[in-house]
Amino acid sequence: MSSRKKVLLKVIILGDSGVGKTSLMNQFVNKKFSNQYKATIGADFLTKEVIVDDRIVTMQIWDTAGQERFQSLGVAFYRGADCCVLVFDVTAPNTFKSLESWRDEFLIQASPRDPDNFPFVILGNKVDLDNRAVSAKRAQQWCQSKNDIPYFETSAKEAVNVELAFQTIARNALAQETEAELYNEFPDQIKLNANDNNRNRDGDNCAC
Amino acid sequence: MASTSKDVPTSPSGHDNTDDDLEPGASYDSILNPTDSFEEFATEMNTSLERSRDLTKKSSTISEIQSEIGECSKELKETKSSDNLQNKDEAISASTSNSNLDENGEDTDNEDDYLKSPELVNKEKHVFILSSAGKPIYSRYGNEDKLAGVCGVIQALVSVVEEQNRDILRSIITKDCKAVFLVKGPLILVAVSKSNESETQLVLQLTYAFNQIVSVLTLTQLNRIFEQRRNYDLRRLLSGAERLIDNLLIFMEKDPAFLLGAVRCLPLPEKVRENITNAIISTCHKIRDLVFAILIAGNQLITLVRMKKYTLHPSDIHLLFNLVRSSESFKTAESWTPICLPKFDATGFLHGHVSYISEDCQACLLLLTVQRDAFYPLSQAKHTISDKLRRSNCLTAINDALNRSKDLPTTNPLKHIGIPEIRHFMYKCKSTAQLFTSDPICLDRLQDYRQRHKEGGDVVKKKVEKLSDIDYVRNYREFCSKMHCACSPAKLIFRSNSLDTVLAWITNGFELYVTFDPLMEKDQAIRAVDRLLRWIKNEEKRIFIMNAPTF
């Protein structure tokens, strides 16, 4: 195991406020659910180790606040993310409509190298509730139109599909990790003339 | 009890008949760049500033901020930091656990538990290194994977100040703890310390840690990697190098060389050092592209021969010391290794032939070249040098100095000087960036310290029976930061209390820190210092490298 490379994935969770981002994360990390709603302020950070195809992967999960007043924090948080989880509430159509702008915003702010193939996952949460308003079909259609983003219907409350969804997230992010070594080319040789290493810098510490 | 007097009008030398330009060790020619630890700090702060300047148009001028970061404006800074934090309170909850559940009184989150584990609690100084994406790269203690949450918080704190307040987060100071932040290129470095080190000293240590990483990768590679992939997990490239950072952090805490930005030389008779240098020059002068030949032993410099025009910065030498000390493999085989010396040239590698001079002598020879396929000629040169040194008895002389043979005056300088009131001193010659202390650190003790550190690094409040070099140096830190304070640097500090008497003195030529018995009179101390300086002057050719040989 010692020789196995450690992997750490930065996972960003986005979506309108109240769709259950924090609850999903809690279900995944702590196996707990609370009915009480408390708005996330800024962001919460959680880590969880998962095993994907025999590799131990640490997921560093950035649970962001959905409320608009925190949106300006985006740039800082999205930087260098390995994947992005977009969450909506199947009982609230407007949260589904927001997905488009969440996705766009993320791509603009994070500016990943290969935006078309950046790993997203869509979670339709709260499927345990009766007053469903966004059909699975509609959600799937949208996902297909966006380069086949994987779609999961989840319930943070009843732990439906949560584990599976996060496993998929980790696997898809890992797949992006191309083995193309960045470090194969040997850096340029030092050119001595280029470097005028003059010791007589200004300052009062000269011996004279 | 403690009296501090700054800028005493009559300098000690005026008191006695010592001439004013007595600067033991001073030399017009130096192999090392003269240094001032504050100068370094200022440079660091400038570079972080440049980065922020790109982000903002309303940034204040560099000089304004430079004066702001000085020790004396601490108060101002503290309030500033807390202002930032208040803003943040509204904007961001920097929690690593999930507050929603915790507040409901259910059990705490795993990471929260981990943060309270003995691995992490009560350490004197933590150092964290992360990417600007918030991915952990290095933690001095504990498992950095499990600290991914903390790293997220650090990244958030840094970027909120940067992007919302258009400012730089420098430090957060609490009653018993300082957190110091340094953003360098694509990395964020943080020290969280309960020690008596100043903010400046901590920033310097973070810079060293950064330079250690650059030394392994080069700055070009480091930047390129993160330009191409901001989500890169740098641990993949640094595996094996954590040990170098671990050792460097210990080294910095105990060796005054870092505090003063100077290099310690192995005391040797002038003639012996000359023979060693000549052996190297005569062997290597025909080897093209050889930039530096450096012989070191026990974190001390024996000699350095250089290509004309080029000198080394002490911090590059410190990295070489650290590399050699941290690599057991050099002892068993000749090595050929790429080494980047960040001050010399951060963009590329030098190629080093590294080997111990012989089995019976713990001196290590580094031959640094720009030629990447010069192993065999350099290996040949090394054997020739080694033979020459053996024949001229230089190896014996090196061993005597390393084993601190009782016959040498430099082995126990205090006894030799004969001023019983002096307990300890450390002296830096500024023009040559070299250092001498009364109690050179021997290898065994270094090892000892490292072992203690491995299991610990905890904050200890022990009563020490016999103080060692390390304890004195710890004590000098506060004096040192007063002497180098940006807004009103002191030239002379005399402090006497029931524990000891300390005199710190800085001139154009040198820096001197002396610990005396408690309750010394000022006059008496000054007379002792004059005698001490004369002794150093007398021995300067033995304890310092007074010339700057070239190939």
TrEMBL record, chain A:
For the keyword Ribonucleoprotein, the answer is no
Keyword annotations for this protein? GTP-binding, Lipoprotein, Nucleotide-binding, Prenylation
Write out the GO cellular component annotations. late endosome membrane; lysosome; phagocytic vesicle
- What are the recorded GO MF terms, alphabetically? GTP binding; GTPase activity
Q: Which PROSITE patterns match?
A: RAB (PS51419), RAS (PS51421), RHO (PS51420)
Q: Name one GO biological process term.
A: phagosome-lysosome fusion
Q: Which Gene3D superfamilies match?
A: P-loop containing nucleotide triphosphate hydrolases (3.40.50.300)
Q: Which InterPro entries match?
A: P-loop_NTPase (IPR027417), Small_GTP-bd (IPR005225), Small_GTPase (IPR001806)
Localization in the cell:
Late endosome membrane
The UniProt family comment states: Belongs to the small GTPase superfamily. Rab family.
The name on file for this protein is Rab7
Q: What is the species listed in this Swiss-Prot or TrEMBL entry?
A: Leptosia nina
From TrEMBL, chain B:
Q: Which domain of life is it from?
A: Eukaryota
Q: Where is the composition biased (Acidic residues)?
A: 103-112
Q: Which family does it belong to?
A: Belongs to the MON1/SAND family.
- Which part of the chain is the FUZ/MON1/HPS1 first Longin domain? 125-248
Residue limits of the FUZ/MON1/HPS1 third Longin domain?
421-540
Output compositional bias ranges, type Basic and acidic residues: 71-91
Biased-composition ranges for Polar residues?
1-15
Task: Report the source organism.
Answer: Leptosia nina
Domain FUZ/MON1/HPS1 second Longin, first and last residues per copy: 289-385
- Quote the function comment for this protein: Plays an important role in membrane trafficking through the secretory apparatus.
Q: Would you tell me the protein name for this molecule? A: Vacuolar fusion protein MON1 homolog
- Region described as Disordered: spans on this chain: 1-114
- InterPro entries cross-referenced by the UniProt entry: FUZ/MON1/HPS1_longin_1, FUZ/MON1/HPS1_longin_2, FUZ/MON1/HPS1_longin_3, Longin-like_dom_sf, Mon1
Q: Name one GO cellular component term.
A: Mon1-Ccz1 complex
